[in-house]
Amino acid sequence: MVPLLQAYSSMEVKLNGTSDGKNLNISESYNVLSSSPSGISVNVTYVANETYTISAVISTSGTIESFSFNGINESGSVAGGMAIGLFAGFIFEIDYVDSLGNFTQILQFHPAGTSTVTIGSVSIPVTTYAANSLPVTTSTCGGSDTLTAFSLTAGTPSGASLPLVTSATLAGTGTSDGTTSSYDVTVQVIGLTIA
Predict the structure, then answer these.
(1) Which residue of 25, 112, 131, 134 is 20 to 30 Å from 33, comparing CA positions?
(2) 103 in the Ramachandran plot: left (φ > 0), alpha (ψ -120 to 50) or beta?
(3) Residue range(s) defining the domain that contains residue 187
């Protein structure tokens, strides 16, 4: 989470689709309030059926040090456990940025074109990646994903220190530690400020 917060001082993402048959319609945004050598203070707004506003302090090692939400103030491991689900859209962004090589450097996927997308006032040169054929199975840490739909667009804005998945459409099943889940999701970055 820390590299994302250090590269982009604000971001808004939308996540739509289904996960294990449950509808997803989530909008999330964050704003970095301050940053120091010891940590980052951030406000997160999470909108699903209700709107939640969260304040958190995250150490430079990525630990959620404190968490404030609806009058609840927590610290330590309790804070981390409560906050993790409310950072879902950004965790998706982080996971896919961390695993971009899985989709851009292996033989099952290929670049399908380049373009420029504008998010707010930020123009980003992007490459769209597609699967050579579907379904395709990829290995994950502790399991595998079988994709039946795949499109991913990624690029690095000028002045940014981290690439960004600007949009992704994924459908299929994932298996991890013996548990299988299904998903059909679209994630899109709709707001962005470079730090």
Answers:
(1) 25
(2) alpha
(3) 2-194
